Amino acid sequence: MVTRRPSCFGLYSKITGGQRIDMFGARVEQLPAIWRRLVDAGFESGHAYGKSLRTVKSCVGTTWCRYGVQDSVGLAVALELRYRGLRSPHKIKSGVSGCARECAEARAKDFGVIATENGWNLYVDGNGGFTPRHAELLVSDVDTETLVKIIDRFLMFYIRTADRLQRTAPWIEAMEGGLDHLRAVIVDDSLGICADLEAAMEAHVADYADEWRGVLEDEEKLSRFVSFVNAPDTPDPTITFVEERGQPVPAREPMLIGLPQVQR
What does the DSSP assignment read for 197-251? Predict the structure, then answer.
């Protein structure tokens, strides 16, 4: 029998397909205490809403799947650690599949990697959402070092040339020459800028810092996490929750199911 240990914050929790732990229902004044416990336990903050890298989804690859031909989990972890916190014109999503069966849906991502017997295929400029677009093959059968180098260039070139709020799919569609031009620039170095793009990414990796850890170390930033400036210990009374499946969810007004209103 498994005994469930309740959290003192009573948050709604969800393990996501993008390898995240979502925790919902925290009040603004609870966030510093919650993040202090998480940071002390070794967790880092992700970016659920920011214009930045969101997730690097992966299948189980060679570790658990008989069809896997490469370690997709290991590569996904390495890519996420490399690009975490990267600010960009729009959100960036990625995926790594351990074989051509594509369980991580890498071709529906801004950049996606699919394992082959000889290395990795890199697909770019895809997305799901309101207007889905399959990513296109940029390079094939490259080793891990070459793969990471090309992803570095791709992301930095996108960040430097895309319009604000423009995802990679409309960016490539608006680019003169499309994928062929992109390949010439970041694979063949036709503009002679690849070394600069790589250096910019290395600077990002070197400068990364966990943002919530930074908040916890800054008294001025901590002082902002209150519902009311003149009553910092008072929670917002307009926020209420009800219980659903043993977890708290926001209380909502009763929903009417489209029944006609009868005048009396």
Answer: HHHHHHHHHHH---HHHHHHT-HHHHTT--S-TT-TTPPPTT--EEEETTEEEE-
Q: Where are the chain's structural domains?
A: 10-45, 49-209
- Residue in 103, 104, 120 with CA at minimum distance from that of residue 69: 120
Phi, psi of 142, rounded to the nearest 5 degrees: -95, 155
Pick 49-209's CATH classification: 3.30.413.10, 3.30.559.10, 1.20.1740.10, 3.40.605.10. Answer: 3.30.413.10
What pLDDT shows up at residue 111? 98
Q: Which helix (H) or strand (E) holds 123?
A: strand 119-124
Span 22-41, pLDDT tens digits: 999 999 999 999 999 999 99
Per the CB < 8 A criterion, the answer to whether 122 and 113 are in contact is yes
Q: From its phi and psi, is residue 129 left (phi > 0), alpha (psi between -120 and 50) or beta?
A: left
Residues 6+ apart with CB under 8 A from 118: 141
Q: Classify 10 as helix, strand or coil.
A: coil
Whether the full predicted model's pTM is greater than 0.70, yes or no, is: yes
pLDDT of residue 28: 92
pLDDT of 73-119, one tens digit each?
999 999 999 999 999 999 999 999 999 999 999 999 999 999 999 99
What gap in Å lies between CA 172 and CA 158, rounded to an integer?
9
Q: How many angstroms separate the CA atoms of 119 and 103, rounded? A: 17
| Tens digit of each residue's pLDDT (9 = 90 or more) over 246-262 | 888 888 765 545 555 54
